[in-house]
Amino acid sequence: MAALAIAVYQFLPDLGWWRTGWQVGIGWAGVAALLVGAHRLPRPERLPWWLFAAGVFSNSTGIAVGDAAEAWFGLVDLPTPADPFFLGLYPACAAALAVLIRRRDRRPDGAALVDAATITTGFGLLAWVYVISPVGLGDPMDRLAHATQVAYPIGDLLLIAMTTRLLRSGGSRGAPFWWITGSLGAFLVGDSAWVVLDNMGGTGEALLAEPWFSSGLESVFLVAFTLFGVACLHGGAREVAAPADARPAGLGKGLLALLAGASLIAPAVLAAQTAGGQVTDGWSIAACSAVLFLLVVTRMALLLRHVERQARQVRELARCDELTGLPNRRAWNDELPRALERARRNNEPVAIAILDLDHFKRYNDTYGHPAGDQLLKAASAAWHAALRDIDVIARFGGEEFVVLLPAAGAGDGHRALTRALEATPLGQTFSAGLAVWDGAETSDELLARADTALYAAKAAGRNRVEVAGQSSRLAA
After folding, report:
1. Residue 324, in any domain of the structure
2. Where do runs of H (alpha helix) occur along 387-441?
3. 247 has pLDDT over 60
């Protein structure tokens, strides 16, 4: 229906209040759709849609107010009675976007803020050079008229900043999200077209005098009114404000291109003015370039910090067993030689043990692999709690674990492992081989003696701790 109404608008005669009523009617229909769609949502989730409705109502009502002010009172010079209504769109939509962003991203996102600031700064220079600055250069308008004209590009910059930040947020990116983005984009396209036409002088006035052209331009705003309502009536409207399960992607190709384009606006404006023979906004271009440079450096620093954090997480994951959270075999192979060197330097004993859950394959076959995984997690947690604070337990592979017992001889090591054996959950047991370092053997030789003791424990009936005999060096 909305598409049909917009299509019919292209053929309406410019007689009486037909065109004005049609535009306002489509705008108010969008407001009605927003209110109906919001009513279907839980009360705490209605606020952003109410704010969008307020913005659309204000802007579309401004069409009727402006036409009435011109027809009845001849008010066409800024500010007109319609301007407060037109301008009401910007703070209302910005507030709605702020609510959505806050709900989608529970944590601050510095990179997203920098991206939004970069894009807004680039377009801000265009607004200053071609819209805001010319107004004050010998223009006879009074201050209120000046402020009114400047308020429109400032409002557009506010929407650019908030829309960019919304695009950089986490959360759902279903159809309603893109309908909202499309509506905001349509408003920005329409406003930008008016600015371009105004700067074209007589050519712009001639284009606006063409019914087909003016109808097409006005339809851009009608599309914007409609898309908000479509988004709110969509079944997935509730997901728009849902918290993000994951952070948004980093620098994709589209975002990178947009950031690059925004960063090149300052040199492009400088080049255009230089080609015209007069640089009239040198200080503005210099200030914008400095701000963009600092924003790019900040973005690079944030990106580097993100890469470093990911690298640190990868290193930690590479040394951690995913199931039990204990150090894995790689971490153990790194730690054992260091522990032996410390023991040599401090002239103190050190022992290691290899633990193997008894009949684990039978447990897996009886209760299933998920239950087996739960047993491994519960057993490793119980053993860790039973051992001393200075002891280190790691998963060696499968149902096999290794324990490092610093400053422990055979007696201390046996007592620590006995406590762990008694703490084994779900009525299960383990067999363990304990070996005390002789002060000269390598890590592999020490592990081999502990492994031999483990097999002795299994052969002796399991559910026990066997202490390895003396190393071949001591025996000799």
Report:
1. no
2. 410-423
3. no
